[in-house]
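Following up on my earlier thread - several people asked me to post the actual chain instead of describing it. Fair enough. Here it is, all 162 residues.
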Amino acid sequence: MRRGTPPPPVSDEESVEVEADESAAAPRAAAPARPEPLRTVFEFELPRGYLDSYGVLHKTGAMRLATARDELLPLYDDRVKANPAYLTVVLLARVITRLGTLEDDEIRAQVVENLFASDLAFLQDLYRRINTEGHTKAAVTCPACGERFTVDLAGGGGQGQR
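Reply from S.P.:
Thanks for posting it. Predicted structure:
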């Protein structure tokens, strides 16, 4: 064929055959499944709750994923240098974004210090789970019937999760 000349016309029959061959040779791929969006905030319900100085009980809250900065900055804190066990308190104060009616800047180390031991243990486990496993779910088996199912260890029935 010379440059600039159009290709010869194709009859309707040839056109149909070409289309059928193309569809057989390259089947349409199913649309790829959308990955779940990264979840960065996890709702929780404390086993006992934080009792503030006014006698208000704060049971529900939210914790965000920790950043490298969250884990590094407490190492420069004088309280952590004096007592390495205090790292947990400072770290949790950084990543808890809500506790009852308390918001970000109101949640300080003093609040975490005054949690009941069972609530502190709960939050330590929650922190570990969301930052290493990325979720708060666990597979369990019913001891009575043997049925396997998943539970949300964050408490509260998993309501309000983002």
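The first strand starts at residue 41 and ends at 51. That should answer part of your original question.
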